[in-house]
Amino acid sequence: MKTKILKMVGLISVCLIAVIMLSGCESVTQKADHQDTWSRIKKNKQVTIGLDVTFVPMGFENKSGKITGFDVDLANAVFKQYGIKPVFQPIDWSMNVTELRNTTIDLIWNGFSITPERQAVVNFSNPYLANDQELVTLKSSNINKFSDMKGKYLGAQSGSSGLNDINDQPKLLKQYIKNQSPILYNSFTNAFIDLNHGRISGLLIDSTYANYYIAHQPNPNLYRVVTGKFPQEQFGVGIRKGDKTMQAKINAAFKKLAKNGELKKICEKWFGKNYNTPLMKLTNNMK
């Protein structure tokens, strides 16, 4: 009887601890939804930006281990206007919203597509770059359209907007692939390794990554890019719901960079002439 009582006490204790921990986590995220942290960030002159450091050319580690990329240059240009230093923090991309809301990072800035699901839990800056989902295959596989993936393995990144597209519109691609379920990767780098070795037949990926990756391969002609009918996406900066000032400051800086030509310089540095930024249109409409 005594043993049973001790077991019950132990079980109740474990349950209470779990409830307390969950309540603590919930209070942190609830606080993040209402707290404006701009004054703290301005005072400390530092902002922590979460990113996937394998996402070329948006944010990645170069050969010397330095984090660089389009988003890195853009973030530096934005916060230079406010005397704030960005600190780029590598994160598990599938946990990006969690890391933001529990205040481990201050912003998600790394080719972060604006979607209704994400807008329900985070705010976004004005969109700064357009992006498409593309199917990348090897030409030797003779895959020329989505239906050619019938019975073949498809790769996608965990937590990506491409994965959401696959699941949200199953008749476009999902219905054809092996097991009607993609193989998930923590990074596009690992996915391309499997594609190149024939372990998957196709990879659904952001056009910004695909175009840059293929262009920088020793033999770009090995690859074929197949486009489908997935809707065009737009990249934005992920911001906590409570950070209204941060949102306004980033948007104001975007407008200034678009107007003074700095945005164009950054775009052409990474994409040449092949880019589409809604910020240019926004600036033109203001004239």
UniProtKB/TrEMBL annotation:
Q: List residues of the Solute-binding protein family 3/N-terminal domain.
A: 46-274
> Which PROSITE patterns would you find in this protein's record?
PROKAR_LIPOPROTEIN
**Signal peptide positions (record):** 1-31
Q: Which SMART domains match?
A: PBPb (SM00062)
The protein's UniProt keywords, in alphabetical order, are:
Signal
Listed SUPFAM superfamilies: Periplasmic binding protein-like II
InterPro entries with a match to the protein in the record? Solute-binding_3/MltF_N (IPR001638)
Task: Work out whether the entry's keyword set contains Methyltransferase.
Answer: no
Q: Which Gene3D superfamilies match?
A: Periplasmic binding protein-like II
Recorded protein name is Amino acid ABC transporter substrate-binding protein
Q: Which organism is it from?
A: Apilactobacillus kunkeei
Traced from the root, the source organism's taxonomic lineage reads: Bacteria, Bacillati, Bacillota, Bacilli, Lactobacillales
